[in-house]
Amino acid sequence: MLPTTRRVSTGIGDLDNVLGGGLTANRSYLLEGTPGSGKTTIALQFLLEGATQGESGLYITLSETTTELREVATSHGWSLEGIELFELIAEAGLDPDSEQSILEPSEVELGETLRGVRECVDRLRPARVVFDSLSEMRLLAQSSLRYRRQILALKQYFSTRDCTVLMLDDRSSDPGDVQLHSIAHGVITLEQAAEDYGSARRRLQVVKMRGVKYRGGYHDFAIETGGVAVFPRLIAAEHHRDFSDILLSTGIAEFDEMLGGGITPGTNTLLNGPSGVGKTTTAIRACLSAIERGDRAVYYLFDEGMATMLARSKAMGMDLAPHIASGMLAVQQIDPAEVSPGEFASWVRKAVETDGARFLAIDSLNAFLQAMPGEKYLLLQMHEMLSYLNQQGVVTFLILGQHGIVGDIRSEIDLSYLSDTIVLFRYFEARGIVLKALSVAKSRTTAHEASIREFRLTPRGIEIGVPLKDFEGVLTGLPTYHGATPMMSSEPAAGTK
Hints:
14 helices; Rossmann fold; nine-stranded mixed β-sheet; 22 strands
């Protein structure tokens, strides 16, 4: 039987998850990324984790001073006590009298640098080492052949000292130069991109990890006070649980009839329509119904201000404040310019797995799209997220605003194939009054009603009328009337979204 290889934690739990359990001990790894991408922060967390495990740590710096490193640690509230900082930036190097011209300066400097590294490691015998950075070594070596030989020699040296090594590189060489990848036992690449508006987006990729099954692809991460937070890419197939399939009420009897009896747990419902037609109010009513039956709920608010939503809901007899105070409802107002898709997915997982949420609403997908680099990625992200929520038995409501009021109404994105249930909201004109209509266009789990009904928002809440059997063209916004179907009260409806 092969011996079990010991794994060491990086100090970042979710990064360990991406790596399949951490780093293989006593190996050398390459952590590469442009300046500011988070290499130093991850390296310090790696050493601090070792200190908590009683392992000695050594940070060898050629590019930063120990004072700068301590400042970085202080900004995160860390103490580097117990971690040895070895600075190879000597003030003597700035003294003109110390210069010589008999030998090639780079040969002397490189040899002295490597000798200083070996002497420090031999003296301290650390279990964890950070070497910052290889770009300085590249400059000293001057030729790629000599550089590669020195890195190989350094790797061989570390392999005989029973220490796990992180070698940092700022990718200042040719981006296509991957010679370091073949030398290192594993490679983690950090990337950052500045958006036209909003905060910079960061992501990492495990390019290589010998002998380990890791999570491929890109994973978003953020540098926060207290360290780096990694958001592993959501894989829905890894998350399953048993749940009841008994239909649940939306809190509106007529709406339940239209849906074929109610909402099936583990499904998502897309509320589709123009602005102001009542999508948010309907989602809030379903949210309250979930809370009333004892389920925790979470409402992600991308568009409207939280204070406005609470005030408007209360005016319609749906006071959310007591449920927020009791902890049964969490309303999170989100700025799409400041959150990455991976971070949002991590919030959803925490709400479901840690907080026990059984109802979830996203209002709206139009704003959520702005957090994505493109429509293609939104569809992929939503597919995984909705599959995950469905497998967890969560009732999900999605709100999608459409362009236009009547006539030609378009959506920025088409999520119809991802949705289990689609509800259409429309304006239409009758008797010189702008009215609202509601219909269920699709349901994968129930025999839904195919009719179109009048829909009203009043101070008493949501009212839904009988099917508009004698109207034609309601969904176009300009119907014709061929009968005597009774209309609902013509009193002014509450203006709402």
